[in-house]
Amino acid sequence: xxxxxxxxxxxxxxxxxxxxxxxxxxxxxxxxxxxxxxxxxxxxxxxxxxxxxxxxxxxxxxxxxxxxxxxxxxxxxxxxxxxxxxxxxxxxxxxxxxxxxxxxxxxxxxxxxxxxxxxxxxxxxxxxxxxxxxxxxxxxxxxxxxxxxxxxxxxxxxxxxxxxxxxxxxxxxxxxxxxxxxxxxxxxxxxxxxxxxxxxxxxxxxxxxxxxxxxxxxxxxxxxxxxxxxxxxxxxxxxxxxxxxxxxxxxxxxxxxxxxxxxxxxxxxxxxxxxxxxxxxxxxxxxxxxxxxxxxxxxxxxxxxxxxxxxxxxxxxxxxxxxxxxxxxxxxxxxxxxxxxxxxxxxxxxxxxxxxxxxxxxxxxxxxxxxxxxxxxxxxxxxxxxxxxxxxxxxxxxxxxxxxxxxxxxxxxxxxxxxxxxxxxxxxxxxxxxxxxxxxxxxxxxxxxxxxxxxxxxxxxxxx
Length: 464
Prior knowledge:
It is a single chain. By secondary structure, this protein is mainly beta. The chain has a domain at 6-83. The chain has helices at residues 11-19, 23-29, 34-39, 43-55, 63-68, 71-83, 307-310, 325-329, and strands spanning 98-105, 111-116, 122-128, 135-141, 146-152, 157-163, 170-179, 184-193, 198-205, 213-221, 224-230, 239-245, 250-256, 263-266, 269-273, 281-286, 295-296, 315-318, 334-342, 349-358, 364-372, 380-389, 405-408, 416-421, 427-431, 439-444, 449-454, 457-463. The chain has a five-stranded antiparallel β-sheet. It has a four-stranded antiparallel β-sheet with strand order 1-28-27-26, with no helix packed on it. Strands 2-3-4-5 form a four-stranded antiparallel β-sheet, with no helix packed on it. A hairpin with a 4-residue loop joins strand 12 and strand 13. The radius of gyration is 23 Å and the shape is globular. It starts with 10 loop residues before the first helix and ends with a strand. Residues 328-333 and 393-397 have low confidence and may be disordered.
């Protein structure tokens, strides 16, 4: 009996199979022969692949934009997000060219901060109001220039906020609210419908649930969010990282040590920087492995045994495998910061960027790793690059685009800003169209755009 070859399958059957693969597999098959190249270039396939990325908040485009683009244009868009705009590369002789620009008016109220919701379609701006004890959030559909949602609470200031990626028209906002009259903060989760502009409160934690205070929000991802709690109100208060499943109203605690511990949540995994009593590293847990340690939030106890002591991590990733005597002498000054991004190309694969910085000397080490969790029993970690810098004057930013660029805030001016490639610290100046008079701040979008907060408007620039 003749073996059935992959390229002998009917086109419709092969397309149905490819939909369940990833972009890396599709691109690999396209290089086998002419027949498979034609099949893997069908627009319907690329619409489905990029629509899946859009629903997971990994692709900065709208569904309407995906539908009108050709398969080659969608491939180019994926490449731009993965590698960064081609004109940003310090190796390119081309001047960075503006691809598209979105503008949101601020009105009479001054804005204090700006956030792009994962997926790139919605922008959230925190504004001051006439009341000193109240501010508000405005969420804008930047492509339609339409205000989609507003939120405020009289007598509460919004100190911090995080958002999940949009699932259809729904997202979850995690808000840290402060009541100035009582000098206390509490955390509130709000489910938002961006089609109707309506929202409902679905969960909250306040200091009345425990003796202490809410220090900061770390992240919110689907059913989970994390925050840092202080065990009391004193200067010497111990900090605890709290991982919460707001659907089941259960929690797990982790050690928080001298602001060196950070947490990131991605689907099925939790990434945690280690306590300060060991070399700087990242511990990786599966959410399933924490199942025995979940406790009801109504019984919250910050003095209970810690989950990271009771269960072994799936993997331990070292920032530096060996600490030299000089490293050990300054170890308490090391800060470990990291970003973790799902790969657009491969399923069950992540890109991890680690930076440890000496707060005394200003030098830092940045390493970039590819993590493959397709085999849970033996996760693969591949070091892609590592670079050292000495006497860094400015602090190392945690905002890194998927293309691996950071912004140098010290270079922000009305003409533009410097983008630095993290894998080798090479830089290139990114000019702004017509300047950005009175620009107050600039941050990167994950997909390789630049957000500018001005006195009169908020703007997002995307480049070729």
